[in-house]
Each structure stands twice: as C-alpha cells, then as structure tokens.
Please model this.
Amino acid sequence: MSDFRLLGTHRTWEDWCGMLLGVLIILSPWFPAQTGYDAVDSDRSIMILNTFTVGIIVLGLAQLEYVALQRWEEVAEIILGLWLIASPAIFGYANDGLMLLWHSVLGVLVVLLGALQLWQDWNLSEEDLLKHGH
Model:
C-alpha cells in the first residue's frame, strides 16, 4: 500500500525526470551508432529541428511544473510524447530503426510521466497545485 502512496503524489523528482527526458530528446539525433546520414542532409535537418523543438518544449514544461504546477502542462507533455512517437512516420525517417527506437522509447516515457503526473494532480485544488515543490 505504501508503494501506491509513493506514486499517488506528484513529487519534484518527477519534474527533474521530465527535464532529463527533454535533454535526452534534444541529444537523441547524436546518440551513438547513428549511421547513414550526411551532415547536410535536408531530411536529417528537419528531423533534428523537430527533435530539438520537442526536447526544448518538454524541458521547459518540466521546469514550469517544478515552479508553478498546472494540469495543462501535463496534457501538453502527453501530446508532445505522442508527437515524438509519430514523428518518424510523419517526417520519413521511420526506416532508420535506431532513431525510430529512440524516439518511440523517449516518447512513451514522456507520455507515461505526463499521464502519471496528470493522474496524481487530477483532484487537487488550485491551492494544492500552488503548494507543489514547497
């Protein structure tokens, strides 16, 4: 039962995990064992821009949650995670198995973290949300 209570309250370490996920998303195009791309490939540039944008927004939302918790931030994280999962198909790099794997795993982690936090905060009042992190 104590394990349930541990996950039943939004903790600041979850926000730090969200920040770490944002950084990992930003760095994911340069993870080891990426092959088959030229530095100036326009398709790769679009993928990098998308990945950088998603990562920066995830990082920023996690920082916002740490400072001023709101439910919309968690919903936005879930949407961004789903976008990251769909990005390989949308931008045409789904045939790159490693990037597909990285973006799928990181996207799923963002979705799960956002869903957990939303579940934890669903019944909190505005006053309780403001107390987060204090």
About this structure: The CA atoms of residues 17 and 62 lie 8 Å apart. Helices lie at 2-8, 12-27, 42-67, 71-91, 97-121, 126-130.
